[in-house]
Design brief:
mainly alpha; Actin-binding Protein, T-fimbrin, domain 1; 8 helices; actin-binding; phosphoprotein; Calponin; 282 residues
């Protein structure tokens, strides 16, 4: 607290108090204000009869009473409670920094109330400016977007197309050609400068992949591409949908025997023993 004490402010306060009261404080600022007499006279100059009794005795309790009356007068003058100091802060030099802050605030309050002095000291207090608006003005203010929600002063929707349509970005600095019509696809959607749909078949039909570098041959449109798989190793030859199918394995059925010939011809008289055939009922 002692390091926060400003000697320059002390000189300004000394000049201000002496100019208002017409009294000399003396070389020691603390001892000159310790008895509270000059401070009480200062309050009576700022606000007449704010301190009714000033004790000029050298007794300690009389001096403390003067300081207490001065503090009460500052509170009634309009000072904030946080700007006040206690009597022992000045009487016993307990907190001279707070005393200096209180006197500076008192000078600012006096300036606010219109006191004219030869010393410009203290900060003028802010004044309350109350405004009364009618009901129509209050309702109109509800439609105003506050600055907490941002501002659109630097942006607009000028030139915007309908939502969902394409918009071409044109910048002459980048040597981009201006758009010719609204059907131009902007660079934000990619570009088709290096690709086309030439030779594309209808959606859903087969397309053959042909690469001249690989030495592959062109096929007709009926060929099934490798993207759809391959049926080179299987076919549906001999398939009968809905009917029974006999599985034949030459390892278990002898070839060229009389039983096979009899089954093929449908002749029961030529059946050798051990082989039988079955005629399908209509």
């Amino acid at each position: 607290l002692a390091q926060k004490y400003d000697p320059q402010k002390e000189v300004e306060l000394r000049t201000w108090i002496e100019s208002v009261t017409g009294k000399q404080i003396g070389p020691d600022f603390q001892k000159g204000l310790k008895d509270g007499v000059i401070l009480c006279e200062l309050m009576n100059k700022l606000q007449p009869n704010s301190v009714r009794k000033i004790n000029r005795s050298a007794q300690n309790w009389h001096q403390l009473e003067n300081l207490s009356n001065f503090i009460k007068a500052m509170a009634s003058y309009g000072m904030n409670p946080v700007d006040l100091f206690e009597a022992n802060d000045l009487f016993e030099s307990g907190n001279l920094t707070q005393v200096q802050v209180s006197l500076l605030a008192l000078a600012g309050m006096a300036k606010t109330k219109g006191l004219q002095s030869g010393v410009d000291i203290g900060v003028k207090y802010s004044e309350k400016q109350q405004r009364n608006f009618d009901e129509a003005k209050m309702k109109a203010g509800q439609c105003v977007i506050g600055l907490q929600m941002g501002t659109n002063k630097c942006a607009s929707q000028s030139g915007m197309t309908a939502y969902g349509t394409r918009r071409h970005l044109y910048d002459p600095k980048n040597q981009i050609l201006p758009p010719m019509d609204h059907s131009t696809i902007s660079l934000q959607m990619g570009t088709n400068k290096c690709a086309s749909q030439v030779g594309m078949t209808a959606p859903g039909t087969r397309r053959h992949i042909y690469d001249a570098k690989m030495g592959t041959e062109k096929c007709d449109n009926s060929s099934m591409s490798l993207q759809m798989g391959s049926n080179q190793g299987a076919n549906q030859s001999g398939q009968v949908f809905g009917l029974g199918r006999q599985i034949y394995d030459p390892k278990y059925c002898p070839q060229g025997s009389q039983g096979e010939v009899a089954n093929a011809a449908g002749d029961q008289s030529g059946d050798p023993p051990g082989y039988h055939y079955y005629r399908e009922e209509e």
